[in-house]
Design goal:
Low-confidence stretches: 1-40
Helix content: 10-25%
Order of helices and strands: HHEEEEEEEEEHHEEHE
Strand order of the largest sheet: 1-2-3-4-5-6-7-8-9-10-11-12
Shape: globular
Radius of gyration: 26 Å
Number of helices: 5
Largest sheet: 12 strands, antiparallel, barrel
CATH architecture: Beta Barrel
Length: 282
């Protein structure tokens, strides 16, 4: 994130200053003691002592809070505002834990990376909206998945695959691209687009209406099959208020397509959302 780059740069400049200062001091001392160099030779540098030193792990922790304004359910034409906590922990370049789950990067080679992820699917409650009455609940469930990505300059191209365990038993694939670049020393902007594909079970769980549900809800019976579920576009900006504090805002638009868009459950195909967060980086 922007804040990480900003702080690291300041640390790098400090490290360089200390290095140059140390070198200057060392030169002065050596010049003053040149006459003693022949009297007392330094022992050879023992590299093995340093080779055996443990490398200090790099980690970061971001905590904060914010809110999101989004449709009451996927396909709704009514919106709700919800508070959202923000906790992001990273360890080295291989582990990240955020509000969506834990990601472990198993392979990095040049711009290519391969990661595994454990997360969750929140499901859906029929009490979330009047239009969902009679459709029943979709249970909260765990998800496991993988992500392959390639970074080129300011672009990241990625593909993900996530399987829900129990719940809707969804299998969801996503292909997308994201662009991120600094505008000033404090401001970072990003923009992205992605296509989401889902299997029969996901489509039927969230957009289908079987005979029993039709009778209970008054909606027409509808069978939703696998295919492209939606296209998402987004833009965000992160601004560093100080070395440690930052604010981030995002606006996004989801466009339901195919069987998802034609479902009697869906009231509106365009699904906009907006969010804002304030965070502190340790």
């Amino acid at each position: 994130m922007f804040c990480t780059k900003y702080i690291d740069w300041r640390l790098t400049r400090s490290a360089l200053f200390v290095t140059f200062t140390s070198l200057g001091t060392a030169s002065t001392v050596l010049a003053a003691d040149a006459s003693l160099a022949d009297q007392a030779q330094e022992p050879p540098f023992d590299q093995e002592r340093f080779n055996n030193e443990a490398v200090k792990p790099s980690w970061s922790l971001i905590i904060g809070a914010g809110g999101i304004y989004e449709p009451e359910y996927e396909g709704s034409d009514e919106f709700k505002a919800s508070p959202v906590p923000l906790v992001i922990f990273t360890y080295g370049e291989w582990l990240e834990i955020d509000p969506t789950g834990a990601t472990i990067t198993a392979l990095r080679n040049g711009g290519f990376s391969l990661a595994g992820k454990v997360g969750y699917e929140t499901g859906r409650d029929q009490d979330d909206h009047d239009r969902l009455n009679g459709l029943g609940d979709i249970d909260f469930a765990a998800t496991v998945g993988a992500k392959a990505a390639y970074t080129w300059n300011a672009f990241e191209f990625y593909a993900t695959l996530d399987q829900t365990i129990e719940g809707s038993e969804s299998l969801i694939g996503t292909v997308g691209v994201e662009y991120s670049a600094p505008v000033t020393e404090r401001l970072m902007v990003s923009a992205g687009a992605e296509v989401v594909v889902a299997n029969d079970k996901h489509m039927q769980a969230y957009f289908g209406v079987n005979a029993a549900q039709a009778a209970a809800s008054g909606l027409s019976e509808y069978k939703a099959e696998a295919g492209i579920k939606r296209v998402n576009v987004s833009a965000s900006a992160t601004y560093g208020l100080s070395e440690d504090w930052f604010v981030r805002g995002e606006a996004a638009l989801g466009i339901l397509t195919g069987d998802a868009a034609d479902s009697p459950i869906v009231e509106k195909k365009l699904q906009p959302s907006a969010s804002i967060f304030v965070g502190y980086k340790f």
